[in-house]
Input
Amino acid sequence: MRDARLFPLFSGLDTLSGVGPKLLPVLQRLCGGSTVWDLLLHLPERWVDRRMRARFDETVPGEVATLRGEVIVHHAPYSDKSPYRIQLGDGSGLLTLSYFRADPRWLKSQFPVGATRIVSGRIEDYKGERQITHPDFVIDPAKGEAPPEVEPVYALSAGLTNRRVHSFALQALKLVPEGLPEWSDPHLVRLRGWPGFSEALNLLHAPARYDEDEFARARDRLAYDEAIARASAFSLARAARKSRRAPVIRPDAGAEKRLLRALPYSPTGAQLRARDEIRRDLASGAPMRRLLQGDVGAGKTLVAAMAAVEAAANGFQSAFMAPTEVLARQQFDTLDRLLSPLGYSVAALSGRDRGSAREGTLMALAEGSIQIVAGTHALFQDAVSFRNLGLIIVDEQHRFGVTDRMRLVGKSDSPHMLVMSATPIPRTLAQAVHGDLDVSILDEKPPGRKPVETRAVPDTRIEEVIEAVGRALKRGERAFWVCPRVDADEDDSSAVARHASLQDDLRVNIGLVHGRLKPSEKDAALEDFRTGKTRVLVATTVIEVGVDVPDATIMVIERAEGFGLAQLHQLRGRVGRGERASFCILLYRPPLGETARERLDTLRRTEDGFAIAEADFRLRGAGDVLGVRQAGATDYRVLDTGRHAAFLEIAAKDSESVMAADPALSGARANALRLARELLTPKLNTPDTDVKS
Output
């Protein structure tokens, strides 16, 4: 239940004076919510310095200046397109005020010749003279008024002016409760010179003076508040999880030894480290919630198979869930090839299964004779039941919502969950994205994995690239050709146009897959390419993750300069999976901008997905790197994951220390943090939705 002190902040925006039925939806869209608190979190983007300047001749074109001068002369416009001009003087020079399509009578009443006026606006250079077009403020000092020393500037949407939003924010500030306890570490607050919570809001929305350092400290303060609130929620999720009981799955050295003996290679050190971390979780008696994060080709499936084998040795079933039919079948093929010869019962289940085959699989799962099943969303349908589900493995976890994962968890009593992702995330973002999960990272690749030679080629040489693809096809190889869009008029870099032109040029069966196809059509196109019915697959980025075709040796990415680094790396990872040398051709349209050039150069220099993710994060920011909204990373309201990355780690340690010192959460700091969570923690996308704030 929400603390009563916070009730005013969660009142509706329509409780503010001046917010009527027409303006309400506009304001809600602007601040991303419907409460007064949402408006206060819509912080100014910048602040305009409107302190009075001493002289006209001290101003510089391009800056905003506030000046006092005497009205000298009016110049009426000489044509319909020219402005009305008013000249002011202050002894150091002249300042022209320009007004387009203004009423001359109104201007003469506002600027009587000989009167003193204070004006504020952006200084321009017009034919060597200082000018302000349509001043932001015009004030008669005789009335005892003056413009604000500093003016907050907000992001706006149609129908709202800056002054109106600011006036609403000033109303909202009056609703901030007084005397809220300090929830951030007081020592850290003193060390950083941060203001209190309420003071920080006032400094940003209603500053009394222009002080950039003060604005930065206030924003940092609120950013850390958001970090500690999020970290505290994650700590609670962990604690709640550890208090529940789960199947105890003990290590079985014999089962693992048989599996490793059947492999044509030895596991990497990173795979063995991840295995040990998972083993400890499985044997702990508390539900495992672990992310297995590994670059393309790092061997996540083997680590997951090791866990499934140990679950089977302890009498428990395992369910592998993949987001698409093709990936689920691919997962099944790998597990079946690896584990069936060792005596394990492996099955597949997807929405396509029908009739007696489906019924047989459902019956075997319910009886427990199937030990390991790979499937799609079909796994959590009501008709599916397990005899003893102990381990859930979710592949490409970011493609599933919380509800999907929890429906599968509901098939058993607190099963363990391992989620896997082939999307490298910068280490600076790990705490933001996966604060509720334990993380195992595979940062080595199995021996024998061939590097993919990456080349950047201008699209003026596209005919040479097509000829190279043709030669590869004659050698029995296959190729991906990725386009940035499905179709576009007069642009042959679209998937539809390129598919048609390549069919004419290469004279082989060429597949086409893109996001506008039905799921069954996409799956069929991917399956045709995987099985060799088509030799070239023209696609949009729907093939970015998971499609495994060892005979594919060429990846052509058209208009590569428009893709993000992490996305290019994922696409490149679709080749280099077999014994043959593989190539990634980055076709770009010259000239390249500086950022695009750096992006392509980075990809040519390294295949380290984590290094690439760090570079992409630096170039584009968190949301673009992740490609999808990940709770904890892209839904911060104040915290900037680039600028404030250090806060995430500090907050994680701080929240854990609070939990360790006060497990009952009855102390003053724990109670204060409860307020912070209510204010600053949206509904988190964690696998443990029973966590209370």
